[in-house]
Amino acid sequence: MGKALIIGCGGVAGVTARKCCQNSDVFSEILIASRTLEKCDALCASLSGDQTKVRAARVDADNLHEIVSLIDRFRPEVVIHLALPYQDLTIMEACLKTKTNYIDTANYEPPDNAKFEYKWQWAYRDRFEKAGITAVLGCGFDPGVTGVFAAWALKHHFDEIHYMDILDANAGDHGYPFATNFNPEINIREVTAPGAYWENGAWVHTKPMEIKRVYDFPQIGPMDMYLLHHEELESLAVNLKGIRRIRFFMTFSQNYLTHLKCLENVGMTSIDPIDYNGARIVPLQFLKALLPDPATLGPRTVGKTNIGCIFRGTKDGQEKTYYLYNVCDHQACFREVGSQAISYTTGVPAMIGAMLIMKGIWRRPGVFNVEEFDPDPFMVALNKWGLPWAEDFNPALIDDA
Ligand code: NDP
């Protein structure tokens, strides 16, 4: 039916590419372009034999000219950006110049300031609208499916949602003393930052990992989880009318936190460059080079993830609670696409979002977060493409909720 350009060739891109190939009725051809051509070639070789035609190319996604000329040559209907958040604006600029639809999984973050915000991407709204092209922001799991869950809950179960808690649990074990499940640099920037949540129209700021709770997750059991600032809080605070509080919690083991604290204490998580033997190095980038590549964790990770949202609000004048979640098994993901569940739960929604753009179902000129679209076709697709969801109308609440 159409062509998609995937930029980036890491853990998430590998899953999205495989899922596009499973869906060859929609994705007749994909071009996988990234900084390291050998990785793209290897991924293409592993996909050969599928009905979808696959090709590889090299691109520096920080270079506007290179992306524009790649798009001009390939003429995709959508660019699926699965490189790093640093490249968001350059790739959006290239999409504008070439009038191509755009989708990503993480909002823009300046490389020299660990501060992610939507304002830079939302500033493109008018220009995308005038160009008649669609940008879908943050279409992984969280952000991504969490926004679709919110839109679904509001459409089918509530008149008003007042409280929303996003719970991201990973009970996977990869056997390493310390590793991150997606890009280590982006992951560590996120979890070492101060926490924040939205309450009564304003941000409440916390120290990193200051707020801890224990939750008994379906199919996983009780786990420690910590309040983090997370990017979908910003868009949901704007788009979920009547919302009073939104929080985001992620589970971490004591072992992970002990390692992280130690690395932090010695300066290894800093993004400020230092001089070392005449070279300028960024400690966090050096640490990334030492840590296992998340794309290699698949064969050794066992256990499950559970990511979902607990909503509280009213329906027909009655108080109501609703929990919507997905459970994903690391080894089942590995058997299917050769990746662990974190890449899987991000890469599948990226394919689904791109599919809805290609089919014209989620196509609207402008720049949008996922909760601004009709959630129904996405929810149907989650069940079909490997991320079935479950619901509970009487869930345990977080102790102080
Ligand atoms: P990886 O580090 O595994 O992959 C990133 C890829 O981008 C690599 O192939 C890398 O190339 C490539 N890349 C980096 N810089 C450039 C550049 N300048 N030009 C071209 N290619 C470049 O990351 P993940 O796959 O784990 O994560 C991908 C994205 O998904 C990230 O933005 C991450 O934040 C996001 N994410 C979103 C989640 C969600 O639920 N919404 C959850 C998890 C991740 P090279 O191989 O040469 O280094």
Can you describe what's shown?
By secondary structure, the protein is of the alpha/beta class. The chain is 35% helix and 28% strand. It is built from 14 helices and 18 strands. The chain has helices at 11-22, 37-47, 64-74, 88-98, 119-122, 125-131, 145-156, 184-191, 231-239, 254-265, 283-290, 330-337, 341-358, 376-384, and strands at 2-7, 27-34, 53-58, 78-81, 101-104, 134-137, 160-170, 195-199, 202-206, 212-217, 221-227, 245-251, 274-276, 279-281, 304-315, 318-329, 366-369, 389-392. The strands form three sheets. Strands 7, 8, 9, 10, 11, 12, 15, 16 and 18 form a nine-stranded mixed beta sheet that branches. It has a seven-stranded parallel beta sheet with strand order 3-2-1-4-5-6-17, with helices on both faces. Strand 2 (27-34), helix 2 (37-47) and strand 3 (53-58) form a beta-alpha-beta unit. The longest helix is centred in the C-terminal third of the chain and has 18 residues, at 341-358. It is globular. The mean pLDDT is 95. The structure holds NADPH dihydro-nicotinamide-adenine-dinucleotide phosphate. The site of NADPH dihydro-nicotinamide-adenine-dinucleotide phosphate (NDP) has 34 residues, from helix 1 and helix 13. NADPH dihydro-nicotinamide-adenine-dinucleotide phosphate (NDP) is lined by residues 8-13, 34-36, 39, 59-62, 82-85, 87, 105-106, 138, 140-144, 182-183, 186, 294-295, 342, 346.
